[in-house]
Backbone:
């Protein structure tokens, strides 16, 4: 009986730790992974879109696929539109969240300039429908305060732990990267 209690306690602690990190991840974190990159971004930020569309695929190909780096994408909503988009992201599985983020960033100018919440939701619904999310699930997701709080908590944690105050912000091996996106790879190479 005592063993069962210990196992249950370990299980709940493990689940609690996993539940705290709601980041979308690329790669596997292990002892052999030399580089850990945390990216804090807002889904309405044009520079974040540039990072996601132009730079992230190369980082994944060059460093993640070669088991050199592990990448985490974290929410840092700057406004209501990015908060709603981040909230809706949580309705998808982790793999589908990657597809959602790809679409959100590629189509950022199409959905993010909405003038009303209703228009924003309509714009986002078009994207989510193309990824297989039903209207019913979309509407349920928009009302899900836990998903909204998860995105907000990510921002608060980033501010408190890393002093993040703009997007995109990259934390590489627990240090805030200060430089242009073009210099990220040079910085990573210095760490290897």
Residues:
């Amino acid at each position: 009986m005592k063993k069962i209690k210990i196992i249950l306690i370990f299980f709940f602690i493990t689940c609690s730790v996993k539940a705290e990190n709601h980041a979308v991840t690329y790669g596997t974190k292990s002892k052999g992974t030399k580089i850990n990159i945390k990216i804090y971004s807002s889904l309405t930020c044009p520079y974040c879109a540039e990072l996601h569309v132009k730079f992230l695929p190369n980082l994944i190909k060059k460093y993640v696929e070669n088991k050199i780096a592990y990448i985490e994408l974290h929410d840092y909503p700057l406004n209501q539109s990015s908060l709603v988009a981040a909230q809706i992201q949580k309705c998808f599985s982790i793999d589908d969240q990657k597809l959602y983020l790809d679409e959100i960033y590629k189509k950022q100018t199409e959905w993010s300039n909405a003038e009303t919440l209703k228009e924003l939701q309509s714009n986002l619904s078009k994207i989510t429908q193309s990824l297989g999310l039903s209207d019913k699930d979309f509407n349920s997701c928009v009302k899900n305060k836990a998903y909204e709080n998860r995105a907000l908590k990510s921002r608060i944690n980033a501010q408190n732990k890393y002093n993040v105050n703009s997007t995109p912000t990259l934390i590489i091996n627990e240090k805030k990267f200060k430089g242009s996106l073009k210099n990220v790879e040079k910085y990573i190479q210095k760490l290897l």
About this structure: Confidence is low (pLDDT under 50) at residues 1-20. The chain has one domain: 23-191.
